[in-house]
Design goal:
Elements: H1 11-19, H2 25-35, H3 43-50, H4 55-73, E1 76-84, H5 112-125, E2 129-133, H6 143-155, E3 165-169, H7 175-181, E4 186-190, H8 198-204, H9 213-217, H10 219-225, E5 231-233, H11 242-260, E6 266-268, H12 287-300, E7 305-308, H13 314-321, E8 327-329, H14 357-366, E9 370-372, H15 376-379, H16 384-393, H17 396-415, H18 418-433, H19 438-452
Parallel strand pairs: 1-2, 1-8, 1-9, 2-3, 3-4, 4-5, 5-6, 6-7, 7-8
Helix pairs in contact: 1-11, 3-11, 3-12, 4-12, 5-6, 11-12, 14-18, 17-18, 17-19
The chain binds S-adenosylmethionine and iron/sulfur cluster.
């Protein structure tokens, strides 16, 4: 029987929880202690943490999030880049430059050959993982188009590298279409609800297929029914109250867990950015509130990856990384053709962080992180429930740490300047020395040596 459902979103419950500010300091401490066991939090517990306002308790929250982040993800940060294939769109989202009423932009669907040129430009930076995006136009960028461009990207080699994982952020599909999409070799299927508040949703998505709130809210259930393993969700912060959106996102995650026994693979935390031809004024959220959200999501769903894009400034990215982020985009262009073939094309929104991948890698190393270009899990079938079992038992480190080290070694060998090589080698030596498990260390050392000897794309 179909489990597709859109009744799990309980707006009244969320509003009640936000209004209840009566939790004692003891209760907050109890929740933070529970969070330290990495068992996750209930919606009620997350709501109590969202109502923390004083700096001292916020610091405790951040400290707890840092501990959990390090326990589960170590120092690894996975890197990726977006690739926009088209900006044609039949919707009218008031915050987006690609909305169909924005007549000031030139519309474009990249040809498959142009997509390959874009992918090559991304590969030349050293990226191994992309997220492919389009506007919503089932005719111009339908499944035949996606199948062709994905196949061509996967077949393309540039220098010593290739794209090894293509995640997707495209408009929601029917179960049958999701089933077909699932045969294209997709990594994560990601879709943002934008806002979970139905009334606001209707206001900001006035026309087009996307104006149907339920169709979007049910999309993950349809993807689950179609057999897609790794799913990514998120709100678009700035459309309504951040507390509401955070709890609603966690409610969505809880629902997915109930439906298929595994919650979302990732949660993204995008904030609205200025965009050409857009005069929408977002609901304000301070940087402190943003940090609070990231920390709470980290504690509430410890095994769900947290994705941060270049919408944020370098300073914000620096501060937020250690609170729970596991994946970041770097050196991103948000226009179709932006890397190589149509650099002048209108961007979907402005990036807050324009640094190159090399600059990003250097900063990560200097701040004690280990940049990872790993794409192993989905290629060896460690996806969905299997992935979560490995993650929850802690076994995932056995794979992630050696893979992070060897893919980073590959990056510095093939793309690193002399500076990156020097900084990168130092970082690899440090992270290797910190591995306590002898078996894991052995695997990592062997993989690093093999990369040095000219082997590529090693993973366990
Ligand atoms: N068109 C499809 C859709 O809307 O689901 C898929 C991809 S769309 C290109 C990716 C995401 O960009 C949207 O889900 C939205 O959250 C985000 N976005 C749109 N305008 C934005 C803006 N001004 N600032 C930040 N993010 C924005
Ligand atoms: Fe189109 Fe997506 Fe932009 Fe909305 S957010 S206008 S659906 S590209």
């Amino acid at each position: 029987m179909s489990k597709i459902n859109n009744t799990f979103m309980d707006e009244d419950k969320i509003n009640d929880l936000i209004c209840n500010k009566s939790a004692s300091q003891e209760k907050i401490n109890e929740i933070l202690d529970k969070a330290l066991s990495a068992r996750g939090l209930t919606i009620e517990e997350s709501a109590i943490l969202l109502n923390i306002e004083d700096d001292e308790t916020l610091e405790k929250l951040f400290k707890t999030a840092k501990i959990i982040k390090e326990k589960i993800y170590g120092k690894r940060i996975v890197l990726f880049a977006p690739l926009y294939a088209a900006n044609v769109c039949t919707n009218n989202c008031v915050y987006c430059a690609f909305r169909c009423d924005n007549k000031s932009i030139e519309r474009r669907v990249l040809t498959p050959a142009e997509v390959v040129e874009e992918a090559k430009a991304v590969m030349r930076m050293g990226h191994k993982r992309i997220i492919l995006l389009t506007g919503e136009d089932y005719h111009a960028t339908g499944l035949d188009y996606l199948e062709e461009i994905m196949e061509r990207i996967y077949k393309t080699k540039e220098l010593n590298g290739e794209i090894r994982r293509i995640n997707l952020n495209i408009a929601p599909l029917s179960v049958d279409d999701f089933k077909r999409l699932n045969t294209f070799g997709i990594g994560t299927y990601q879709l943002f609800q934008e806002t979970y508040k139905k009334e606001t949703y209707k206001e900001v998505h006035p026309t087009g297929k996307k104006s149907n709130y339920e169709w979007r809210l049910e999309a993950m259930d349809r993807a689950i029914e179609a057999g897609i393993n790794d799913l990514g969700i998120g709100p678009l912060f700035g459309l309504t109250d951040y507390k509401f959106e955070t709890l609603a996102t966690l409610m969505h995650a809880e629902h997915m867990d109930k439906v298929c026994g595994v919650g979302p693979h990732t949660i993204s935390v995008p904030r609205i950015e200025p965009a050409e031809g857009v005069d929408f004024a977002p609901t304000q959220m301070s940087d402190k509130e943003f940090k609070k959200i990231v920390a709470i999501i980290r504690l509430a769903v410890p095994y769900t990856g947290l994705v941060l894009s270049t919408r944020e400034t370098p300073q914000m990215r620096r501060e937020i990384m250690e609170l729970g982020i596991s994946q970041i985009s770097a050196a991103s262009e948000t226009n179709p053709g932006g890397y190589a073939v149509h650099k002048e094309a209108t961007k979907q929104f402005e990036s807050g962080d324009m640094r190159s991948l090399q600059e990003m890698v250097v900063e990560l190393c200097e701040n004690g992180f280990l940049p990872s270009f790993c794409t192993s899990c989905y290629r060896v079938g460690r996806v969905g429930k299997k992935f979560m079992e490995h993650a929850k038992s802690g076994h995932i480190h056995q794979y992630c740490q050696p893979n992070a080290l060897s893919t980073f070694k590959e990056y510095i060998e093939d793309y690193g300047s002399e500076e990156v090589k020097a900084i990168g080698e130092k970082a690899i030596a440090k992270h290797l020395a910190e591995i306590k498990d002898e078996k894991m260390k052995n695997i990592a050392e062997k993989q690093i040596q093999a990369i040095k000897d000219g082997k590529r794309d090693l993973h366990v």
